[in-house]
Amino acid sequence: MIIIILLIGISLTIAVIFLAIFFWNMKSGQYDDTYTPSIRMLFDGKPKRDTVKSKHNNESQKSTDGNAPMLF
């Protein structure tokens, strides 16, 4: 019986700690802007990988050798 009381006390302590952390995050403005993160990836610039890919495509197009491997 004592173990049930001990486990309830520990679980309530953990719940209060998480509740305090939640209110601290709310106070600090963690959840103020919920719209921008969902659309942020739509407005990022082109990744640098595309510039490397286009550079390789330009080099392969400049090649006059028909047996030269195409670089992607």
Structural features, described:
With 72 residues, the chain is mostly helical. The chain has a domain at 1-31. It has helices at 2-28, 36-39, 48-62.
In percent terms, what proportion of residues is strand?
under 5%
Distance between the termini: 69 Å
SS summary, helix count? 3
Rg from alpha-carbon coordinates:
28 Å
Can you write the helix and strand succession as a string?
A: HHH
Overall body shape: elongated
Number of strand segments: 0
The low-confidence runs, each spanning 5 or more residues with pLDDT under 50, are none
The level of helicity is 55-70%
Structural class: mainly alpha
Task: Label this structure with key terms.
72 residues, mainly alpha, 64% helix, elongated
Give the arrangement of secondary structure elements:
Layout: H1 2-28, H2 36-39, H3 48-62
Summarize the structure.
By secondary structure, the chain is mostly helical.
